[in-house]
Amino acid sequence: MKKTVFLGSLAAAGLAAGVASATTLEDVQAAGVLKCGVTTGLVGFAAPDANGNWEGFDVAVCRAVAAAVLGDGNAVEFVPTTGKTRFTALASGEVDLLARNTTWTFSRDVDLKFTFVGINYYDGQGFLVRKDLGVSSAKELDGATVCIQTGTTTELNLADFFRANGISYEPVPIETNAEAQQQYLSNACDVYTTDASGLAATRATFEDADAHMLLPEIISKEPLGPLVRHGDEQWSDIARWTLNALISAEELGVTSANLSEMAKGTNNPEINRLMGTEGNLGEMLGLEADWAQKAIGVAGNYGEIFEANIGESTPIGLARGLNAQWTQGGLIYSPPFR
Amino acid sequence: MTAITDPPKETFRLSMLLYDTRYRSLTIQVIALICFMLVIAWLVDNAATNLAALGKPLSFGFLGEIAGYDINQRLIEYNSQMTHGRAALVGILNTLLVALLGCITATIIGVFAGVLRLSNNWIVARIMSVYVEGFRNVPVLLWIVAIFAVVSETLPAPRAFRGDDATAHMLINDSVALTNRGFYIPKPIFESGSMIVVLTFILSIVGIVFFRKWAKARQEATGEIMPVGWISLAIFFLPTLFMFYIMGRPIVLEYPELAGFNFKGGIHMRNSLIALWLALSLYTGAFIAETVRSGIQAVSKGQTEAAGALGLRGPRIMRLVVLPQAMRVIIPPMISQYLNLTKNSSLAIAVGYMDATGTLGGITLNQTGREMECVLLLMLFYLITSLAISAVMNWYNAAVKLKER
Prior knowledge:
The complex is a heterodimer. By secondary structure, chain A is α/β, with parallel strands linked by helices. Helices cover about 40% and strands about 20% of the residues of chain A. In chain A, strands 1, 4, 5, 6, 7 and 13 form a 6-stranded mixed sheet that branches. A 5-stranded mixed sheet of chain A has the order 10-9-11-8-12. In chain A, strands 2-3 form a two-stranded antiparallel sheet. The longest helix of chain A has 20 residues, at about 235-250. Chain B has a domain at about 85-185 and about 255-400: MetI-like fold, CATH 1.10.3720.10. In chain B, the strands form 3 sheets. In chain B, strands 1-2-7 form a 3-stranded antiparallel sheet. Chain B has a two-stranded antiparallel ribbon with strand order 3-4. Chain B has a two-stranded antiparallel sheet with strand order 5-6. In chain B, a hairpin with a 2-residue loop joins β1 (about 175-180) and β2 (about 180-185). Chains A and B meet through α1, α4, α6 and β10 of A and α2, α5 and α11 of B.
């Protein structure tokens, strides 16, 4: 009898321990490191350099959040995830933030229970082909073999596009970008399809980049952004406003060069609120007053990050296009810091 | 005088559960069982609670939703507008296909390699040792990827077959094309009247079985040996060929032809299937070779010598005396090799072969976010498949095992 009671209370204690947990912010601060899910390697967005340091456009988001929360942009543990493993990794708590050019869709937001904290790149799905294939439009791809990253929205877009146009194709599912590249270059597929930015990044690494081209069709909207789990609003707010801080910094003219000067106080109250010299925005988030300063201090504002990793001066050579600030005719727009 | 009296009737006391050896082991077992069940209950409850906390209670409704993705290799009708359940079925059939093909070729390779490893020819025996050790000691995933890389990197792309100055050519009278997207082979087309030909063929096979039984009975009764092999061969081919021409050649071959980006027509064996099939066969074949070798060596040398003394020669000794006895040792470990091969086929996604793990446990899992349900279904599928293979093999084992009379 006593034994049963003992076992029962033991089980109850175990159950309680299994369910109760601290907030994500407390977990991250206790660990002293932000676990950030990134791609397994897509140059420009997230890839380790020659010294093994991760760098790229998505990596910069991870570092900015780490700086805002922990004060150190290097306090990040990068977890490479494939298109297939990323959601399980986030849902299970293996990563705290997923910045892996992931498309914001209804079902991912609502059904998979994730919160997209914003959009850091407006993209669309394109097709990469060899120029000597003699194809000028995706509608001429009847019967083509198409390499496609499995577990992505591109898989569904592709099925829809070929179905809508009444043409056939042979899908070859691929796990990672590197495998897709190998298959495409060995001519095992005629076409490689994924987000146009990813195609540009992949093409930039080819020895004979000029022999390949992107077809004019962009067959989908792919708003890419970082995401977190549902249910911890404080954590999603932190990630959302860190991204917004980077975007606002560009709009307000705060750069890594003039950051320390701006931090001393300016006559623009919005810059002051962003820098934490006025108001108590940091406290509302549960962070220190200069959280945004630290985030911007890692690699500069949104525009600087873009130019350094995927901009026109890099081999990837992406124009700002839709990803210019709203004041420059683009879609990048941050709600006000107030 | 002694009177036999009944021993005093013991009343059962609770403390006897602990101190009486008759009951103690039972008590311990019951407690262990309760602990085990509590752990299971805790795991299940924890999973259910956490899923509920995530807002994703266990539900299999997603199987009826539209899948939305395409699958390249499908043995049954499927398109992107069909359900996730149908997509899972396509994947399951692909798994069964590669498992069946793999088991057959692994057995053939394994038996040959196992017998040849015992060959008196030094070179043959050494080559087989190299094969067995090479494949047995490298993870099968690496072999799958390596064979896939060889196929896709070394063979020509379909476009190399095009034009007057084509660098690659089709083999065997323009009927087979080996490309880096897979092998294209002719496909038989069954027209009207072909059913009779197929039926004749099936009847011939039944005929062969009966003929061999009859020939064996006759040999045991009279001692006369008939040319069983030649007659079987004749029964195998002649009636079917005869019927084929009588019916006006109803079975024709459809040859693959280069059209557009790819070859069209014929059967397309994708390089993912070839790589997976070959790697699984060679890998498991190496294990089967060792099983076969140990089985043969388990048969006492006296049996071989006795057979030799009776005037039988090498191959016949192996076929009639050694192998039937070795089978009793070989079959049980062979079952687990078949199970391993089937389970190893779940590595298919490494080369983009859409098996059950690729569809149900891959794309469907990803698009619907139903990790728990998909993985449970997958486990159930592999469990049922493995148990079915075990059942069949155990039945076969019971048929060949030593019958004590």
